[in-house]
Design brief:
Helix content is 15%, strand content 37%. The chain contains ten helices and 29 strands.
Amino acid sequence: MKSTRYLLPALICLTLITAPAAALSPQAVGESPMPSLAPMLEQVTPAVVNISTEGHVELRTNPLFNDPFFRRFFNVPNMPQERKTQSLGSGVIVDANRGLVLTNNHVIANADQISVRLTDGRRFSAKLVGTDPETDVAVIQIKATGLVSLPLADSERLRVGDFVVAIGNPFGLGQTVTSGIVSALARSGLGITGYEDLIQTDASINPGNSGGALVTLKGELAGINTAIYSQSGGNIGIGFAIPINMAHQVMEQLVKFGEVKRGYLGAEMQNLDPELAAAFGLSGHSGAVLVTILPDSPAQRAGLRAGDVVTTVNGKHVRDAADLRNQIGLMRVGDAVQLEFVRDGKSMKASAQVGARGPKVAEGTSGIRNPRLAGVSVADLDEHSPVYGQVNGVQVTQVANGTAAWKAGLRVGDVILSVNRVEVPDVESFVMLVGQTNGQLLLGVLRGNRTALLLIK
């Protein structure tokens, strides 16, 4: 299991996700037979597979240890350059004809070999089609006949209180089924993934269930199990799944392009809190406030301005800034988008074309508008980073000597996980957050395999 958070209570991504009591079935009435999920499960469970991986991660060491003179002079023993990894998880067959299996990115991260075992005992080597760490979705492919796939539900139609079933491979024991209800919808800001719109459930989810199926009583795939909320590492009845609508959108791009071409609006945004709503003369508190419109961006070309409050995207309600970011980010480049927004108390509409997100690198103060980070450059984690796919954050690419950040201990290669205890999954979020902060900065930093808090005054 890979723990990617140092906050308590912890949010745990579940490669090797437990809840107390499962939901009870109604009792039989008179001579009527006892209700059972067995007929549905007999059709569903063959589509849920067990996944095991073997891989390696490169270990970061001080460059001096690689210097032959230093090693001979100080009699330094040979240091291992990499560490072997193994993981157990689950997956869901969503296209039987092509052998496509949906799972979590953190299940197959750093894998050199991926093995898939079906419920009938057959085992196959899998090919990696593509991964998207920002949504924690991955697609793998197996060549096999006689596969069974799960039909997809419309996760937008889920309601709190709907019964659901979680299926996966907990603790490597083999396929296990648990039941519960949808406890909440549209959970975000949890720091589990970069793009969050998660289903919360009390169906028991255990380590090893990651990538498994969250299924409706109709036998339709509603979500991909991904994490639990825990204070001790054990489940307390709060698990999370990626909605299948989101996962399927990501899958289509991974199959077609091998990567996700993230949609881009070109606006920094923040939540509409009660104070801002009152200032704008709005009665509700839902929506996203556009703080900055970037030059020559889709937002600027659509006529949007700083201070506009976006309320719907293509007719879909916008809850907050994270929701707007998710909706735009999951669209394909070139898609037309219809926005409804409020400006000066008047409802207005605009049409935009989703743009392509350029390289997300913030160079010095030209990108980072906070004097405490003068001389600092950051970039998104890429596949060459030893923690790629394991944590969400931004990597420090430059720290000028003598700056406030340097004096606070920030160094090149550090991975910034949070700012003032708020997760920063990517450069866009990092730049927006530090740009809105006037006081001191408390950075959560990962260096090697250790985390620390650095205070920049």
